[in-house]
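Protocol step 4 of 6.
Sequence for Ring-cleaving dioxygenase (Virgibacillus phasianinus) entered exactly as in the expression construct, tag removed. Do not edit the line below.
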Amino acid sequence: MELKGIHHVSALTANAKQNYDFYTTILGMRLVKKTINQDDPSVYHLFYADEAGNPGTDLTFFEIPHAGTTYQGTGSISGTSLRVPDDKALEFWESRFSEFDVDHDGIKEQYGRKIISFRDPERQRLMLVSDEANIGVKGGKTWVHSSVPADKGIIGLGPVKLTVKSAAPTTAILTEILTFKQTGSYPSIIDGQNEILVFSTGEGGTGAEVHIETRDDLPKERPGRGSVHHVAFRVDNEDELAKWKDRLVAARLPNSGLVDRFYFKSLYFREPNGILFELATDGPGFNTDEDDEHLGESLALPPLFEDRRKEIETNLKPLDTKRPHN
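Step 5 output, structure tokens:
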């Protein structure tokens, strides 16, 4: 049993329309699924990804219309990165961010890679990371109809950063329960001295890393719009997911048990610093109920919710995601 890398990251937005416009128009990602939060069907769950929503490329958002401000702190997923093909692509993005007034920090270097840290309109903490030297998990493929050129586009999720009060308990979960190994570290940009620890799983590389930052000077994060809800790691199939459940039970870690999310099967648990982890299967995928050409254009409901479609559609604020077809 070995986790294959990052599966998806799920964050919070207070405005689905603004969110959709930013991630599709400015970032050029494809909306591959417009569905509902299965734990609260009165709000949207939006999935942005590569051309087909391949595992490891999904950045998803729960819409919480009255979500308050995020007060940043520990016990949080404090950074989500998105992979681009090479260093040259970052030059394109630096210019694009300036053109569209996206708050960004310019091209810098981190852990031997070129990066650009930036924020979305709700102050979501994001980073573009170059795959110039990546030899680990392969990225996805940009959508042919993206607003961004194919050789510059976002090809998947990169490293996820966790900020914790104490690294040891989280490190123990990653290395003793999950299949991560510490593969490096780099100085924090906060003071240049505190080391951020790097852990990798599977084939490693940008698509399979968790970075841990220790901050004992911060309070616990109060999440709101622009915060991250959970990170999911890739499991090959449902049989293997059942074995992961057994491993968590044997370690006496409370967990959700197997949950059918229709597009994949899931298992949830919290590590000791309170961060929500999900293990999710690679399949069956987003073309289960929509063909590849029309992904994300209509409201997709898992079968469990289909008989409530009229009620659900009435409660949702309309969001036009239909694309003109020739």
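Step 6, annotate. The chain has one domain: 6-315.
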